[in-house]
């Protein structure tokens, strides 16, 4: 990160990159390796980074840039020459912009943690809407003010130096606001799960579709459990609020590490989330195809290899049988 700090945008010295300035750098969906996509006549050529280094005998600076891109492309869908490099690999900050809502939720979550620490209450309010409502409650504001003063005294800042205490809380809430944004994306995956379960009831008479849906539900459960554990781990680590504030710099590094892990994993779901936002719970050819795409996305990520091979064979067999039935019906007609 220290070496990358001097470089802020994608740039190269070799003339090849000048001639191919409209090329796009991205992670290849099938292989998972970083490539440069360039248009040659009417065809798109995909150039893996090791091949670029070897074929053009790239210098040290250009090789270093490709290495930076390989890291940076984990956080964005694509980059072009001249684009700013992701802040995650430069400063450790997050690339995307925060919404005011996520800032309020994170700040209020920390404030309520301080209130609970002061009053000895163990139950923590985690519902975002409830936290938003408490932000404007006069009684809550009074308790938060008291908690800030006591925490400032305990941290050695001084009860009357609340402004310095506010800086501590704002820094922590800024980092956790990104986690709240990621939590919203996780909720979108939960929404997909609910829709798929509702669709099973509608497709109950179509055996092939139900088999696929059952596998999708099983795999979604594994995915959701994995994400839930990651969020719980992060929440637990930042739950002891006074200990977090005492060791703020190290906690920020921990939060950023876990935030980046979640961001990378959730980014892979972007296309599915976008597609399923408009999916209605009904029987249709479009919905059937969408269910299949969810399965194709989940299977290589969460299914055991043997189960995946077996399920694929069963699906192909069922599809062949259905095709034969259709042909038979046509012949009879």
Task: Characterise this structure.
- The protein has 333 residues and is mainly alpha-helical.
- Among the domains are: 4-89, no CATH class; 197-239 and 249-332, no CATH class.
- It is 66% helix and 5% strand.
- It has helices spanning 15-19, 49-55, 60-72, 100-119, 128-134, 138-154, 162-202, 207-237, 241-246, 248-267, 270-277, 285-302, 305-332, and strands at 24-27, 34-40, 43-48.
- The chain has a 3-stranded antiparallel β-sheet with strand order 1-2-3.
- Strand 2 (34-40) and strand 3 form a beta hairpin.
- Helix 4 packs across helix 5 (128-134) and helix 4 (100-119) packs across helix 6.
- The longest helix has 41 residues, at 162-202.
- The chain is flat and about 70 Å long.
Task: Briefly characterize the structure.
The protein is mainly alpha-helical. Helices cover 66% and strands 5% of the residues. The protein contains 13 helices and 3 strands, in the order H-E-E-E-H-H-H-H-H-H-H-H-H-H-H-H.
Helix content: 55-70%
**What's the number of extended β-strand segments?**
3
Q: By helix and strand content, what is the structural category?
A: mainly alpha
- The helix/strand series, from N terminus to C terminus, equals HEEEHHHHHHHHHHHH
Break the fold down into its secondary structure elements and pairings:
Elements: H1 15-19, E1 24-27, E2 34-40, E3 43-48, H2 49-55, H3 60-72, H4 100-119, H5 128-134, H6 138-154, H7 162-202, H8 207-237, H9 241-246, H10 248-267, H11 270-277, H12 285-302, H13 305-332
Antiparallel strand pairs: 1-2, 2-3
């Amino acid at each position: 990160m220290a070496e990358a700090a001097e470089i802020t945008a994608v740039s190269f010295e070799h003339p090849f990159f000048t001639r191919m300035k409209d090329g796009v750098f991205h992670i290849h969906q099938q292989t998972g390796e970083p490539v440069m996509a360039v248009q040659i006549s009417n065809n798109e050529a995909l150039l893996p980074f090791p091949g670029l280094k070897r074929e053009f005998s790239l210098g040290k600076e250009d090789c270093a840039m490709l290495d930076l891109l390989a890291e940076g492309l984990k956080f964005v869908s694509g980059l072009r020459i001249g684009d700013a490099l992701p802040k995650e690999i430069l400063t450790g900050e997050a690339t995307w912009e925060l919404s005011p809502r996520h800032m309020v939720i994170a700040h209020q979550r920390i404030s309520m943690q301080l209130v609970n620490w002061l009053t000895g209450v163990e139950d923590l309010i985690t519902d975002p809407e409830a936290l938003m409502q408490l932000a404007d409650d006069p009684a809550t504001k009074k308790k938060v003010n008291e908690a800030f003063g006591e925490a400032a005294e305990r941290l050695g800042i001084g009860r009357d130096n609340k402004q310095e205490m506010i800086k501590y809380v704002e820094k922590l809430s800024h980092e956790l606001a990104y986690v709240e944004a990621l939590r919203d994306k996780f909720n979108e995956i939960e929404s997909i799960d609910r829709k798929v379960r509702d669709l099973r009831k509608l497709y109950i008479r179509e055996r092939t579709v139900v088999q696929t849906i059952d596998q999708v539900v099983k795999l979604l459960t594994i995915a959701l459990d994995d994400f839930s554990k990651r969020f719980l781990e992060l929440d637990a680590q930042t739950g002891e609020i006074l200990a977090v504030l005492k060791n703020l710099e190290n906690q920020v590094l921990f939060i950023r590490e876990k935030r980046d892990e979640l961001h990378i994993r959730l980014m892979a779901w972007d296309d599915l989330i976008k597609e399923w936002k408009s999916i209605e719970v009904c029987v249709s050819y479009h919905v059937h195809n969408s269910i299949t795409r969810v399965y194709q996305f989940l299977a290589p990520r969460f299914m055991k290899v043997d189960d995946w091979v077996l399920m694929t064979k069963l699906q192909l067999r069922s599809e062949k049988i259905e095709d034969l039935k259709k042909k038979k019906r046509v012949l009879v007609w």
